[in-house]
Amino acid sequence: MANLLVTGGAGFIGGNFVHYWADKHPEDAIVVLDALTYAGNRSTIEGVEQADLIEGDIRDQELVEKLLREREIATIVHFAAESHVDRSISGPDAFIDTNILGTNSLLKAARAVWLDGDGMEHRFHHISTDEVYGSLGADDPAFSETTPYAPNSPYSASKASSDHLVRAYHHTFGLDVTTTNCSNNYGPYQYPEKLIPLFLLNALSGKSLPIYGDGMNVRDWLHVEDHCRGIEACLSKGVPGETYNIGGGEELPNMAVIDAICAEVDRAFEEVDGLAERYPDAPAANGKPTSKLKTFVTDRAGHDRRYAIDETKARGDLGYAAERTFAEGLHQTLRWYLANEDWWQPLLNR
Ligand code: NAD
To answer: 247: how many CB neighbours lie within 10 A of its CB?
Structure first.
């Protein structure tokens, strides 16, 4: 595998992947290319010795070509994206620029450098989402790799578009590509605008927990470390040109996730010394249930009702299966945030 270029490696999943890869493959050099947008954070990968963070944009084709040549990159793992659906509704342009034009620019650079006949093996691995498949009814079968694309938000439309470009560079130019479409990730280092860290931090400061619509939208929840194992399996066993769905095997309505967060916060205040002093505004600091903060708000425009992943292909062809239950993963994640306020507090102050 040798040298990797990880785009978006200072973000949530990319950052976890950098930690994961450095632990599992200490002999490899990792070049992280990240524009350090609001979602990127240097401190996420600080201390990972073999990772070299280059602050730069995936749309800078000249820079990417230079990195591919000078660092002798054999593998690109492409995470960099605008990733928050709500932001894509209030401002779609950044999603088109980074997710579509940025991916195209990266593909152009890979084509220019890698397909010049140097005889080396290369892999462009693209990280995408289950949201490209659209929304399921309660009884519909889960998304498989052959489910037609039907993206509903500017975010998922931009990701769908990037998936098609990746596919096209394989079929038209012969670039060695794979794509994984994964479900909702959670775990350490997630920016506190996404459900789990947002609700935890709101609960700690006694702010309301805003629940979209009736709270019964269903998602499959994937611990980020399981996701990293799925990507690793795809890099070693994935067939060029193929796509694989990666899920956590945990289909849950939002309300079940929110209730589990509330219960975990209450439990943490009973079990972890000093939380009541650190977070005096939390209901749990005053013997009240966190669930009292639950508040229904107007639903997200175009909110997809249900996503579910059929991972038969990843299980059969890659040997992938999620290892963590949601209950274990949520417990570990919330305890990580409670132990790592130094990581998230500066983000709230930005
Ligand atoms: P994130 O928003 O936490 O991180 C994105 C990173 O990309 C940030 O570090 C940001 O600085 C960087 N970036 C943004 N624009 C850039 C640009 N033009 N050039 C270079 N770097 C840039 O996102 P995430 O949650 O870690 O998601 C990573 C990937 O996984 C994305 O492609 C996303 O679509 C996909 N995905 C995420 C989830 C999820 O649940 N978070 C689910 C399915 C798929």
So the answer is: 29
